[in-house]
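Readers of this paper often ask what the protein records in our data store actually look like. Such a record has a labelled line for the sequence and another for the backbone structure tokens. The tokens are whole numbers drawn from a learned vocabulary of local backbone shapes. We quote a single record here, exactly as it is kept in our systems:
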Amino acid sequence: MVAAVLVAGSEKAAAHRLGLSHSTVKHHLANARLKVGAANTAQLVWILAPRLPDPNGD
């Protein structure tokens, strides 16, 4: 989910890319933020970026 936001650039674009509703993406990101203690989605992406797969497949 976080990788999709990183690649797509926004929650809405990630939802469209994944074929999910925006509210589903928001819900999953909220849970992820709680787990890692991130204040917002940008901070969540910053925290998890080193652990995410390369979006280009490299």
